Amino acid sequence: MMKRVCLVAPGELPVPATQGGAVETLITTLVKQNEINGDMELTVAASRDKKSELEASFFKKTHFIYVPTAKSIKRFLIKCIQFAWDKLGLNHSVPLNTPFQREAAKLINPEEYDIIVMEGGMFEPTALYRKRYGDKLWYHLHGVPEAPFKCLGYKTVISVSEFAKKNWLQYCDEDTTHSVRVAHNGIDISKFQRGFTEDDRKAIRARFGFAPDDFVALYCGRIIEVKGVLELLKAIQRIDDDHVKLMVVGSPDFAKSSRTPYLNKVQSLVDELGDRVAFTGYVPNDQVYQYSKSADVQVVPSLWEDAAPTVCMEAMAAGLPLLVTRSGGIQEYTTPECAVIVEKDERIIDSLADALRELNGDSRRLESMSQAALLHSRKFTEESFYREFVETIDE
């Protein structure tokens, strides 16, 4: 008998993922694959958005609960309470519901589901969710715990990597035991393997003033401190070769593209580097392949423990060699044959610069890494992610 499953999105961005978002894209993948395979009676609770609601109308095997935005005065009051809670250091011991979670709980009837999966968010469920959903409440772990925390209330945790699972088991402090299972992420690899000619490649490069024979590194992701964007820019700055260029694709919060102090620092260094760096801002995921196909290497300079960055899978699917830090689940999703690894320590800027110098001009190595990346990307498809997820909930 099919399981009745409700996925509760984080609530910041809509589903289907019309505004980007790694977690929202993964939820959308499950929806798309369930439309083909129909292994779950699937429901998704997400924030209200007109474009996403229109896309959702084409899915026949998934029910969508669109949660209305709380009134502005209510959101303001909740933010004030959250601020005070954080200042008092209480959020780790007594987590509060976000406005989205509070409204979603009113619409998600526990009697209608076998499993209710919180997609990300606080490691510990709030009292409201524990009381309302009991042993039906699951958690999909998209991050990596790095400090002790208490977690009372989840029946099962689905982790996106063995690394994240290990950290959860290491730091989770609870009296009762729960199951922790792994379902690796996957992407639509065909999206990054579309036809792209040499003329297309030259045209993208010319748009940014890059020459056909320039060595172009690509950064694609959020422009936030833990992603190491400033360190990568400083590495480019230390390479005394004007033919080494960088494309930076992304924004602090996907399509919302907010202005932040960190973004201002990045923009300042981009301006200082002049024609050696192109900064595109947010690019919809279905257009990213153009930039991937125009680059020579993709850099993932994470400074934190990255659980399972989808950009690694996307780069491999596009046939791009990778330069990555030794971080979280990255090594679980890549191999030494397709990714150069540097330590995320005090020498990271020099290490990135040295690695880029070594790769620049080594066409034989780059081609070998490219072929290895294409081959390895086949392990992380939408179909494999869906299959592992379904097997996990059926165990």
Structure description:
The protein is of the alpha/beta class and 395 residues long. It has two domains: 3-186 and 381-394, Glycogen Phosphorylase B (Rossmann fold, 3-Layer(aba) Sandwich); 189-377, Glycogen Phosphorylase B (Rossmann fold). Helix content is 40%, strand content 18%. The protein is globular, with a radius of gyration of 22 Å. The two termini are 13 Å apart. The mean pLDDT is 92.
Write the layout of secondary structure elements.
Blueprint: E1 3-8, H1 22-37, E2 40-47, H2 50-56, E3 62-67, H3 72-87, H4 99-107, E4 115-119, H5 127-133, E5 137-141, E6 149-150, E7 156-159, H6 162-171, E8 172-173, E9 179-182, H7 198-207, E10 215-220, H8 229-238, E11 244-249, H9 261-273, E12 277-281, H10 288-294, E13 297-300, H11 310-317, E14 322-325, H12 330-333, E15 339-342, H13 348-359, H14 363-377, H15 382-394
